[in-house]
Design goal:
By secondary structure, this protein is α+β, with helices and mostly antiparallel strands. It is built from 14 helices and 20 strands. The strands form 4 sheets. It has an 8-stranded mixed sheet with strand order 6-5-14-15-16-13-18-17, with helices on both faces. Strands 8-2-1-12-20-19 form a 6-stranded mixed sheet. β15 and β16 form a beta hairpin. The structure holds flavin-adenine dinucleotide.
């Protein structure tokens, strides 16, 4: 949690070891696997129910900011992730003609926040998380169809899935934007809200001379960004303001669409697009979830995108899921009363994730401006903002340290 957030109120109730408790985690994405790792490190028995046949993700990179690296440190996995990722040397923002609007370098980030920005392939992050768990705790092909919680504490929550039913002391709903757990226990909650723009993601083949710096280029109602991955590959992403309904995953025609939209953008965009295999472009419409009044119901907690899916403009969705996981395990470690621990988790996580979600949406709205005078003003403001002010403005997001961390 941020230094400015209220202090955790629970005190450790007993020094006596607690009997081993069992958690069922619904969803084996970054959030679910991280929660399972965090709980297991605190002595919990865990099972992760994943709908897909494998624990992996396809085709894109992910940026992990200093707050995420601190969370990964708490899981004992930061070194492994750093080894597999690329540390971006420098990067910044460019206008549609390729001129720099603002720049920063990773040394500054490390100086200020103690960690660099690390970018790696999503599949690698999933692999590191999954390998930190016993193989028999991972249940692929176990789509969850329903969750019941008595709510009065008479018995623990029960999860119905493809392999039968699981009862546990705790259920973690980490099943993403269209969460079944959320729908089951928050039936009145509003569904995903379209941000107004679609997003493409892709990874190039290895390049002989990859760009020395990453950048995001802001146009009118469209953006194109790229950042280095290990082995000379580049992770690229693009957005365009379009009606919802076109983002259907991977399709070869999306490569042609990107060439049409971005093929004449400033270097190195055309060369990057030429280095992307035609069938390797992912397209997804971008959504956020309207806020909930609580992330918990009895002994069920939502985590990651299921709790607070946000637009990707700050590159924080997965970073926040990692924070959630570490915070959840911390709260549960401090009391045998699962419901009380979850209330504490909710108090710590809801305001923070709400603030980050809002900020990400605001940045997206600015990035997608299309009216020429507004674009001119936006670019001028970005050009005039001192480098230090840009990083300082990110402090409340990047400064997070795990609760209970003695360095706080
Ligand atoms: P998910 O990744 O959605 O995982 C949910 C899992 O649950 C999936 O494996 C799914 O198969 C499973 N599941 C779903 N339903 C069921 C069910 N009924 N039963 C069992 N299993 C189920 N974040 C960053 O931090 N940095 C970035 O650079 C970044 N870039 C992004 C770029 C784009 C274009 C987008 C769209 C997002 C980006 N994000 C980024 C956000 C990040 O991808 C998400 O916040 C993160 O993946 C959320 O993880 P999660 O585990 O909560 O959910």
């Amino acid at each position: 949690m941020s230094r400015a957030a209220p202090q955790e109120a629970l005190s450790k109730q007993s020094e006596a070891p607690m009997p081993q408790r069992a958690a069922t985690v619904v969803g084996g994405g970054i959030g679910g696997l991280a929660a399972a790792v965090a709980l297991r490190r605190r002595g919990w028995r865990v099972e992760v129910l994943e709908r897909a046949g494998r624990f992996t993700e396809i085709g894109a990179g992910i940026s992990l900011w200093p707050n995420a690296l601190r969370a990964l440190d708490a899981l004992g996995l930061a070194d492994a992730v750093r080894t597999l990722g690329a540390v971006e040397v420098a990067g910044g923002l460019r206008d549609r003609r390729g001129r720099w609007l603002s720049r920063t370098d990773n040394a500054e980030l490390v100086r200020r926040f103690g960690h660099p920005l690390v970018v790696l392939h999503r599949a690698e992050l999933l692999r590191v998380l999954a390998q930190a768990l016993p193989a028999d705790s991972l249940r692929p092909g176990s789509g969850v169809s329903a969750v019941r919680d008595a709510g009065d504490g008479s018995h623990g929550p029960v999860v119905e899935h493809a392999g039968g039913e699981s009862g546990a002391d705790l259920v973690v709903g980490a099943d993403g934007l269209r969460s079944t757990v959320r729908r089951a226990l928050w039936p009145d909650a509003a569904g995903p809200r379209y941000a107004g723009y679609t997003g493409w993601r892709m990874v190039t083949e290895p390049l002989a001379e990859p760009p020395a710096e990453g950048a995001a280029t802001w146009g009118r109602g469209a953006r194109f960004g790229y950042t280095a991955l290990p082995g000379g590959r580049m992770y690229c992403f693009a957005t365009a303001s379009l009606p919802a309904g076109g983002g259907t995953g991977a399709s070869a025609s999306e490569h042609a669409e990107l060439l049409r939209r971005f093929g004449s953008w400033p270097d190195p965009v055309p060369a990057l697009l030429a280095a992307v295999p035609a069938d390797a472009v992912l397209r997804h419409d971008l959504y956020e979830l309207p806020p909930l009044s609580s992330f918990v119901r009895g002994r069920v907690a939502l985590l990651g995108d299921a709790a607070h899916a946000m637009t990707p403009n700050l590159g924080q969705g997965a970073c926040q899921a990692l924070e959630d996981a570490v915070t959840l395990a911390h709260c549960l470690d401090r009391t045998p009363d699962v419901a009380a621990a979850l209330r504490s988790y909710d108090r710590l996580r809801r305001p923070r994730t709400r603030a980050v979600t809002r900020r990400s949406a605001r940045l997206g709205a600015i990035g997608q401006l299309a009216w020429p005078p507004a674009v001119l003003l936006r670019d001028a403001a970005a050009r005039l903002t001192p480098r230090r002010a840009t990083l300082r403005s990110m402090a409340s997001v990047l400064d997070w340290t795990p609760p209970g961390d003695p360095s706080r």
